[in-house]
Specification:
The complex is a heterodimer of chains A (about 110) and B (about 120).
Chain A (H helix, E strand, L loop, with lengths): L3 E4 L2 E4 L5 E7 L5 E8 L3 E10 L2 E4 L7 E2 L9 E3 L8 E8 L8 E2 L3 E5 L1
Parallel strand pairs in A: 2-11
Antiparallel strand pairs in A: 1-3, 3-8, 4-5, 4-9, 5-6, 7-8, 9-10, 9-11
Chain B lengths: L3 E2 L4 E5 L4 E7 L6 E7 L6 E7 L4 E4 L2 E6 L4 E6 L8 E9 H4 L1 E6 L3 E6 L1
Parallel strand pairs in B: 2-11
Antiparallel strand pairs in B: 1-3, 3-8, 4-5, 4-9, 6-7, 7-8, 9-10, 9-11
Classes of the chains: A mainly beta (about 110), B mainly beta (about 120).
């Protein structure tokens, strides 16, 4: 089954404690990205990757890092989480066909206290 | 600056009637448009798309209309069913002609179908 898998689904952490949210896709997609969803703001892109070892900033990259060492994995790293990073996070992947649908993971609800 | 706008945060429609969700955009470079549906505690799922070379695309009960001159698209669901109750996101990209896969999303419209 084609899918994008995120872990964990729920996470409560304290300010400043480094965390990683994992994302893995089994569709051999080249393009992967991270979004955050906040009330009244829709989904905003944090970072994206067009292929292995190629990453770039999206619209709201501050406070986040990513890496793409393998095609299937695209972890999101918060080196020093702050309360304003409390949000619902989604990982997505798509084939680089110029115009294609993105497949989304089930989401990670992060609370930073 | 919100490049994709969904001005109706919520919409209620009687079961069996037509649901019309609207979306406006400002970036004239957008050439590929998508609608996603999202249930609580799940990720968005793709519903239907349209490229800028078309003005209508139909898939079963779902039809998307694109008016490029007005920079407006709409999603029609007919007939509406209780399972259609969800949040609907409009998204746009420059993917069709320019190969830019980045999606820019609207803020979503919560559709409630009343039995």
């Amino acid at each position: 089954e084609a899918q994008v898998t995120q872990n964990p689904r729920y996470l409560i952490t304290v300010t400043g404690k480094k965390l990683t949210v994992t994302c893995s896709q089994n569709m051999n997609h080249e393009y992967m990205s991270w979004y955050r969803q906040d009330p009244g703001l829709g989904l905003r892109q944090i970072y994206y990757s067009m292929n292995v070892e190629v990453t770039d900033k999206g619209d709201v990259p501050e406070g986040y890092k990513v890496s793409r060492k393998e095609k299937r994995n695209f972890p999101l790293i918060l080196e020093s989480p702050s309360p304003n990073q409390t949000s619902l996070y989604f990982c997505a992947s798509s084939a680089r066909q110029g115009a294609s649908e993105a497949f989304f993971g089930q989401g990670t609800r992060l609370t930073v206290v | 600056d919100q490049q994709v706008k969904q001005n109706s945060p919520s919409l209620s429609v009687q079961e069996g009637r037509i649901s019309i969700l609207n979306c406006d955009y400002t970036n004239s470079m957008f050439d590929y448009f998508l609608w996603y549906k999202k249930y609580p505690a799940e990720g968005p799922t793709f519903l239907i798309s349209i490229s800028s070379i078309k003005d209508k695309n139909e898939d079963g009960r779902f039809t998307v209309f694109l008016n490029k001159s007005a920079k407006h698209l709409s999603l029609h669901i007919v007939p509406s069913q209780p399972g259609d109750s969800a949040v609907y996101f409009c998204a746009a990209s420059e993917g069709y002609h320019f190969g830019n896969e980045k999606l820019t999303f609207g803020t979503g419209t919560r559709l409630t179908i009343i039995p």
